[in-house]
Amino acid sequence: MNETNDIEKRTLTIKRTLKAPRKLVWEAWTQPEHIAHWWGPHGMKTTIRKHNFTVGGEWEYSMTMPDGKDFISHGIYSNIKVPELIETSANFIPMTEGVTIVVSFIDAQENTEFVFKVIHPTEAYCRQQEEMGFMNGWGSVFDGMERYLSTLAA
Q1: Which pairing describes strands 85-93 and 70-81: parallel, antiparallel, or unpaired?
Q2: How big is the CA angle at 141 (ends 22 and 57), to the nearest 5 degrees?
Q3: Domains of the chain
């Protein structure tokens, strides 16, 4: 099996057209003061614990769940192409570990074509994550990002 096909079978992708210019979407994704407003499921408070937005830099976000426990997400940036691409390792403890996130921001005049990919270590793990509600979970996060962007673009 060639590696491209293997990666495709291990990848879940969400694409959206965001009604905001790429520069604004990039800032919302890369600046802690913006991230805290939209990252995580609706209604959860996000705290930025670490945010070293450089290749090799670490990020760590904490979301407080309704039961008061913290849900931790963290990773290390491996590729950054301003304002087009971000690649990072990612762990979402306790649900998802050992994945790679690749986010593309494509200029579409006053809009942004947003492509979010999560590459899993195996095809079976990818299917498990999909069955656990990947599309709905991340979809709700990106709904929140769109709501937040609309307040900035207004």
Answers
A1: antiparallel
A2: 65
A3: 3-40+80-153 (3.30.530.20)
Q: Which residue has the tokens 């690749």?
A: 102
Total residues belonging to the chain: 154
| pTM of the entire predicted model | 0.93
The CA distance from 68 to 12, in Å, is 30
Tell me the sheet residues that pair with 92: 73, 96
CA neighbor of 103 nearest in space, from 119, 117, 83 = 117
Neighbouring CB atoms inside 10 A of 38's CB total 20
Q: Is the dihedral of CA 81, 134, 76, 21 positive or negative?
A: positive
Per-residue pLDDT reduced to its tens digit, 113-153:
999 999 999 999 999 999 999 999 999 999 999 999 999 96
3-state SS string for 69-106: CEEEEEEEEEEEECCCEEEEEEEEECCEEEEEEEEEEE
